[in-house]
Amino acid sequence: MNRTARAVSVLALVTAASVLTACGDDSAANPPSLPGPAETPASSTAGTGGEAPKVSNPLDAASLVTDPCQALSSSQLDQLGLTEGQPRPNEGLESGACRWERPEGSLDSVDLTVIAENGNGLSALYADKESNEYFEPTEIAGYPAVYASLLDSRDSGICDLWIGVNEREVLHVMTNLASTKTAEASCGLAADVAEAAITTLGG
Fold first, then answer.
1. Has residue 147 got a pLDDT over 90?
2. What is the dihedral of CA 140, 63, 72, 117, to 10 degrees?
């Protein structure tokens, strides 16, 4: 049974979150949450209005647009306790998604996609932040990021993390943990996966 897509915004950037969430099936039934975003005050990381913090060291994410499963190497998968990724479609988006799961029948999963359709990058999410039930700026491996979603399901194991890897493209990581229903667990895993993907891209 697919979970209903969460329409976070009409913007392409935020729409990707709902598409990615919609990819969930029975294996994503009861995801857990992770630690909330790093305790960085919004005033110190966020720009004014709809402007996100600038990306000081832009990364080329083109390889992940065509094959998001390349985001995590075999050694990174071992460290994160995840199995080999499986490509998944993202209707209406240029890039597909990749899903990694935990082994031995676990219902835990992580999805990643690169959102390239929106020329404003992470700033599109900032401009529409009032539409989100939670919006918590943070930083991942030196890159501006935001924990944000239309619905706050972190205490049910679902966490959405957006990372600006350049001024146009955004990585979206969504964790869905059935085994550990805490915000610390779901958002923590999202941060770990995002940091590993940034390392893969050369950040």
1. yes
2. 50
| Interacting residues of 156 by C-beta distance below 8 A, sequence separation 6+ | 30, 31, 32, 33, 181
Domain regions of the chain by residue span: 12-200
Concatenate the DSSP letters of all residues of 36-83 into one string. Answer: PSPS--HHHH--STTPPPP-SS----HHHHH-GGGGS-HHHHHHHT--
- pLDDT tens figures, 29-76: 322 222 233 333 333 334 445 789 999 999 999 999 989 999 999 999
Cα 50 from Cα 48, distance rounded (Å): 6
pLDDT digits (tens, 9 = 90+) for 98-140: 999 998 778 899 999 999 887 789 999 999 999 999 999 999 9
The model's pTM: 0.78
Q: How many residues does the chain have?
A: 203
Q: How many angstroms separate the Cα of 6 from the Cα of each of 56, 148, 179? A: 31, 12, 22
Write the CA distances from 33 to 14, 57, 120, 185, 189, integer angstroms: 20, 29, 28, 5, 9
